[in-house]
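Fold this sequence, please.
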Amino acid sequence: MAAEQTYEYRKPLRRRVYDVLKVPARAVRDRYLYHRAKGFFDQAVEQSEYSWTDLGRFKEYFEYAFSRRKPHFPNSLQRPRRYFPGLRAQPVWDPNEFEFVPELLRSREVIRSEFNGYRQNAELMVHHQRLNAVGKWNILYLHAAGNPNVGIREFFPESIKATGSVPGMGVVGQAYFSLLAPGTHIPAHCGPTNTKLRLQLRLDVPEGCEMRIGDHLHKWDEGHEILVFDDSFEHEVWIRGQGERSVLIFDFWHPDLTSAELWALETIECWTPDRRRYRRISKKLLKPTTT
């Protein structure tokens, strides 16, 4: 009797070649972008109202963003790829510190209604990063990579109005509706930079939804309608209940950044390697799928 053959999966040759070459290729790319970006930014500084004396912390960030130096992280649970030194580092923030929060709370029910109404006639896309180990994660972008999702603006007038006064809205990071199915787990990961904070506005959150940010465990109890956190800290999510969890998520500038640093970040943002990669796929992310 012939021995039973076992099947062993082998990656396609092109994938194995890619795995070998991607690290040195990215190093070459980052070095090229670094020199191009440095020349561009030196010229931008000369033509601006700012000088390099205003940008001491940014110079260090610039080296980290292009992988010229490795940052020293004061907290082992905060490990962003683009680390900006000298900013307050705390996993969770008090929402009352931010002037735009009251308007957002007043508009919560309208935003919730707009999202649920849209869902009745459209299909949300699967999160392109596919971070969830189990379960299902669907999203709908309002902004991605600095670009507004113009195709859905007519469906979300109050959502756009309520977030219009947020510092950096549509410039820094992303803004999107997030829908997690029961049983979903998003494993621990760190966001790309600590130059921004992230806000989650509760829309529909059943019991059994938890989120760990750093060493803080957040439970969505009644009365906790807004969570502001630093997603450069390691964080993960569990949906242990029976219902779907929906929230509005958006990023905004870290409040410790100076006007000179904000100008520098907005000027150089399009040159950073991960930002350039994200902009290339943003067109696909901003196409709503109707049913």
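The radius of gyration is 21 Å. The chain is about 30% helix and 20% strand.
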